[in-house]
């Protein structure tokens, strides 16, 4: 066995052990709980909930990998996107804003 093929098999095994953190079923569950239905990916509440899920995952990753600056940048961008959506929702419908902030346990 060559070194290249051995590295490839190690890499494949590593990827299989990681798995996907955000599966289709997880997304549908988030949208069903916070949106208007399991296929409602367009509502602000659903998107905010999905961003929150992703932010939590990236935060845990960064606790273990402090020097992963690409992930850190992605996290900052996601937090900004969520903040923009929250600001939009606050202007459009304050009751929906208060409900999603309370439901997700976000700071105001």
Your description of this structure?
- It is a single chain.
- The chain has 108 residues and is an all-alpha fold.
- It is 77% helix and 0% strand.
- The protein has a domain at 39-107: Helix Hairpins.
- The longest helix is centred in the last third of the chain and has 24 residues, at 69-92.
- The termini are far apart.
Based on helices, strands and strand pairing, what is the structural class?
Answer: mainly alpha
Share of residues in strands: under 5%
Helix content: over 70%
What is the 3D form? globular
CATH arch. level architecture of the domain at 39-107: Orthogonal Bundle
Largest sheet: none
Low-confidence segments, given as residue ranges, are 6-17
Q: Class of the domain at 39-107, according to the CATH hierarchy?
A: Mainly Alpha
Annotated CATH homologous superfamily of the domain at 39-107: S15/NS1, RNA-binding
Average pLDDT score:
85
């Amino acid at each position: 066995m060559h070194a290249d093929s051995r590295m490839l098999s190690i890499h494949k095994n590593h990827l299989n052990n990681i798995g996907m953190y955000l599966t289709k079923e997880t997304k549908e569950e988030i949208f069903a709980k916070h949106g208007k239905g399991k296929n409602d990916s367009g509502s602000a509440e659903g998107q905010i909930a999905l961003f929150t899920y992703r932010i939590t995952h990236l935060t845990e990753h960064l606790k273990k990998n402090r020097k992963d600056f690409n992930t850190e940048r992605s996290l900052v961008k996601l937090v900004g996107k969520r903040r923009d959506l929250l600001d939009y929702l606050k202007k459009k419908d304050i009751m929906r804003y208060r409900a999603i902030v309370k439901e997700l346990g976000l700071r105001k």
